[in-house]
Amino acid sequence: MTATESTHPMSGKVALVTGASRGIGAAIAATLAGSGAHVVLAARDRDALSRLAKTLTSSGGQATAMPVDVTDEDSVKNLMAGISERFGRLDAAVNNAAGGGRAPAPLSDWASEDFDSAIAVNLRGVFLCMKYEIELMLATGTSAAIVNMTSTAGEQGVAGLSGYSASKFGVAGLTRVAALDYAAQGIRINAIAPGPILTDRLAAAGQAAQNRVAASVPLGRIGTPGDVAAAALWLCSNQSSFVTGTVLTVDGGKLAGTPPFNTRNW
Fold first, then answer.
1. 117 phi and psi, to 5 degrees?
2. What is the 3-state secondary structure (H, E, C) of 131-156?
3. Known active-site residue 182
4. Residues 205-247 pLDDT 10s
5. Which residues of 118-136 are buried (b: 16+ CB within 10 A; e: fewer)?
6. What does the radius of gyration of the chain's CA atoms come to, in whole angstroms?
7. Which helix (H) or strand (E) covers residue 1, if one does?
8. What is the set of domains in the chain, with CATH numbers?
9. At what angle do helices 46-58 and 23-34 cross, to 10 degrees?
10. Is the pLDDT of residue 43 over 50?
11. Is the pTM value of this prediction over 0.85?
12. Which terminal residue of the chain, N or C, has fewer Cβ atoms less than 10 Å from its own Cβ?
């Protein structure tokens, strides 16, 4: 591995990040830009994308804002057409856009429309993005990588999150199938399953709530968007060249099993 490959593993590559306007998506975009990639920032919020693009370019990175609605097939097709016209290639994509659904509630309290909206964004949106990303990647004939964003709620059921959990379980399955479909063509497809991450919602919940969440994590802390971004960079780069069809859990050990019993209180 050369010095450039070690410090800038995405040098010269074009990388797409959906859901890039804030939180985990923005952190992934910044990490990829810092590693040498020209990052295409995609989300519905055009103004937020423009601000992030300016921030990344002012820091010496390369970034281009291209708004998209992942629930709209024509919008996704237009995004890929724009990437093809501007860059002529796509080397990596992180499908991070998420949303829809409703606040946690027992399954029978979920309206059909809320369930459908969770599936539309979190699962169908990933399908649409992969479909057209893969078409572009195949057209350029170079090795490439796709990273989908699932969740620990897509590896283990979470009460009250029927629509969200179902959609994220679906993303994990879709990832594994696509990895098998395109391994021979040199396209690696993996997913990341974050656990408790300090994004806007958890930050707004306050310190007491954050302390309770941290206490449930074997490593004793809440994850950061940067933790997820580091995993995404590794999966996008050639440093993970023999990894495909896997779901990488970034959760501080929450899904590993039962933590040690506190025998001092026995």
1. -70, -35
2. HHHHHHHHHHCCCEEEEEECCHHHCC
3. no
4. 889 989 999 999 999 999 999 999 999 999 999 999 999 999 9
5. bbbbbbbbbbbbbebbbeb
6. 18
7. none
8. 9-248 (3.40.50.720)
9. 30
10. yes
11. yes
12. C
Each residue's pLDDT tens digit, 92-124: 999 999 999 999 999 999 999 999 999 999 999
Type and span of the H or E element at 160: none
Neighbours of 191 (CB within 10 A): 29
17, two tokens: 């990040």
Where do the DSSP E strands lie in 66-209? 92-95, 144-149, 187-194
- Here the tokens at position 64 are 């281009």
Distance (Å, whole) CA 33 – CA 38: 6
**Residue 262 — pLDDT band, cuts 50, 70, 90?**
low
Q: Which of 110, 127, 132, 164 is catalytic?
A: 164
Compute CA 243 distance to the chain's CA centroid, rounded to the nearest angstrom: 17
152-210 pLDDT, tens digit per residue, is 999 999 999 999 999 999 999 999 999 999 999 999 999 999 999 998 888 888 899 89
Tokens of 50: 């423009």
Which residues are CB-contacts of 76 (< 8 A; sequence separation ≥ 6)? 68, 69, 70, 128, 129, 131, 132
Q: Taking a C-beta distance cutoff of 8 angstroms, is the pair 92, 37 a contact? A: yes
